[in-house]
Amino acid sequence: MDEKFEFRIKKRFKFILNKKIMKKILVPTDLSEIANRALDVAVEIAKKINAKVELLNVKVYPTADVGAYYSLYGASGVSIDDAWEDILKAAKKEMKELISKYSGVQIKPLIEETSEHFVESVLEHKADLIVMGSNGAEGFKEFFSGSNSEEVVRMASCPVLVVKDSQDTFQPKKVVLGVDLVHEEFIKKAIESLPLENAEFHFLHVDDGNRKVDYRETEAKMHKLAEKLGLQNCKYEIFNANTIEYGILEYAETEHADLIVMYTHGRTGIAHFFKGSIAESVVNHSKTSVFTYVEN
Description:
Residues 22-164, 236-291 form the UspA domain. Pfam families: Usp. The protein is α/β, with parallel strands linked by helices. It has a domain at 174-294: Rossmann fold, CATH 3.40.50. The chain has helices spanning 3-17, 33-49, 64-73, 80-99, 118-123, 146-155, 185-193, 215-229, 244-254, 269-275, 278-285, and strands at residues 24-28, 52-60, 107-114, 129-133, 160-163, 174-178, 200-207, 234-240, 259-264, 289-294. Strands 3-2-1-4-5-10-9-6-7-8 form a ten-stranded mixed sheet, with helices on both faces. The longest helix has 20 residues, at 80-99. Mean pLDDT is 82; it is low at 7-18, 138-145 and 269-276.
C-alpha cells in the first residue's frame, strides 16, 4: 500500500473514532412547507447516524391566530382562552398526522407555549444538531423569518443546518467550504453530521482586498487542510469579491453548489451590532442550504 495513502486512511480512521456521537436532532417547525422539508432532511440524517428527532412547534401567546379565531367565533360565546386551546389541539393533531408519514426513526412531537421570543424556546432544547427551513429574508408565514433563522445560527451552541432547497433527497454533491485557514472545527462538524461521503469539496478562500493574500501559499494551506481532514475529491479556489459574504454567495451560485459550510463567531450584543456576522448574512441571502457551527 502506498505510504501516503495509508497515512490518510489512518488519520481518517482516527478522526471517525474521535467523533462525538450525535444523538438528538431538533427541528423547529411552524408546519409550513419549508419547515416540513427540513423535517424530511432531519429524518434522512437521523437514519444515517442513528439519532432521534424532536419536532418542536412553539406557540407564542398571544398570536395573530388567536385574534383571527376569536373574531370568527367570539360572537358565538367562544372565549380567547378556549380559542387558544383549540389552536393547540389543532396543532397536536397536525403534528401527529405529519409524524405518521415517517418510519424507521424515532420522532418526538413537542408543542410549547410561550410569551417570549420564538428563538429562546428553540435554544432551550439541548440538541446535537438543529435542522430548520428558511425562505431567507422574506421569512416564513409565522415565526421563521430571516431574522429568526440568523438569530438561531448566531446563538446556537450546536451545529445548525438551514435548509433552503426542495430536492427529493438531501445528498449534497457540491459542497463549498468557506475557509479562512484559521478555523477548521466547523468542517469536522459538517463531516460528522451530514451525508457527505460522495461530495465534491470546494475549499473557498475569499480575497476581499482588505489584506494581502499570497495566492500560492493560501492554496498550499488549503491542500494541507484537506489532507489533514482526510478529504478526497477536492477543489481549491481563491475568489476575488468586494465582501466575503458576496464572494461566498456568488461562488456557490456559479458552481451550482448544494451546500455551503461556514463557521460563525456567534456574536451577541454590541459586538454583533458593529461587526455583524458573515454566516448570518449568507444564511439570509443564500439560495443554497447552509451549515454553520459557532467557532471562536
